[in-house]
Design brief:
- By secondary structure, this protein is mostly helical.
- Helix content is about 75%, strand content about 0%.
- The radius of gyration is 18 Å and the shape is globular.
- The two termini are about 20 Å apart.
- The model has no long low-confidence stretch (mean pLDDT about 90).
């Protein structure tokens, strides 16, 4: 496909940005353009290596995922109830994505729309954090554990996740902000965002690979393996680091970063 270092760079970009509220789409666009790695095969490669980032989340939260198939009586987020919560969160985006897939590709995947999504998402982060700062004494105790997530909350977060169908908005950003607006504390909202990403991303990757696997041949396996492995390692580091940061900082630094990234996407989007 291309030199091995391209797989390394793209894997790093995917892993580091997939679960941060900064839009992996915008970063992959810039990286692909800088490396002259564009086209249908490159697009499918970028989707395929998302599996590495997904695996990183599964490893980090292995006990939570294990609890979905081997229920833990001490945890509410486990067994059939945990699966039901993830289903409710995944359903809106999967349904809308299936119905609007062609329209999204045709009308929302361009330099102006992606840059605008980065900008709008940044403004919403400022609004959400300003609201959180005002509510120093909320009317009720915030949801501060995955086991306190209710079906109503799960569905509400799922509705916010639909914003991620707008390329550049950021799936993690949409779900974290949605969770915070619905009364979930910042750290728990991020953790639930990571868990909820797995079924949606697996469905999206599986669908794309089913359609485009013929683009690859056996000579591409090494390239794909490198991208997958780097995406896994960098994704693991990004998730661990992000959770640590959220115990000390707000989302505002990510909002400022998105504001700086938006014009770069607009200017350097490949023609």
């Amino acid at each position: 496909m291309a030199p091995w270092y391209i797989a390394v760079v793209m894997g790093l970009v995917e892993g580091l940005t997939e679960f941060l509220p900064v839009s992996s789409t915008g970063h992959l666009i810039l990286a692909g353009h800088a490396l002259d790695f564009i086209g249908a095969k490159a697009d499918t490669f970028e989707i395929a290596i998302q599996l590495g980032a997904i695996l990183a989340v599964v490893v980090i939260y292995f006990d939570r995922f294990l609890g979905l198939v081997k229920p833990d009586p001490a945890r509410s987020f486990s067994g059939p109830r945990g699966l039901w919560l993830l289903f409710l969160t995944s359903l809106p985006a999967l349904g809308l994505g299936f119905l609007a897939h062609k329209a999204i590709k045709a009308h929302l995947f361009g330099p102006k729309t992606v840059a605008l999504a980065l900008f709008v998402g940044a403004l919403l982060m400022f609004v959400v954090e300003a609201r959180a700062a005002r509510l120093k004494r909320p009317l009720k105790r915030p949801v501060d554990s995955l086991d306190a997530v209710t079906p109503r909350l799960a569905l509400g977060i799922g509705l916010f996740q639909c914003l991620a169908l707008w390329p550049g908005f950021s799936r993690s950003g949409a779900t974290i902000m949605g969770g915070m607006l619905l009364g979930v504390d910042r750290k728990t909202a991020a953790e639930y965002s990571f868990l909820a990403a797995v079924p949606v991303m697996c469905a999206a990757v599986g669908y794309d690979m089913l359609k485009n696997w013929r683009l690859f041949d056996t000579a591409d396996l090494v390239f794909l393996t490198i991208g997958f492995a780097v995406s896994f390692v960098s994704g693991w580091a990004a998730v661990r680091g992000f959770i640590s940061l959220l115990s000390r900082f707000t989302l505002r630094p990510f909002a400022w970063y998105r504001l700086a990234l938006a014009p770069l996407v607009w200017i350097f989007w490949p023609n």
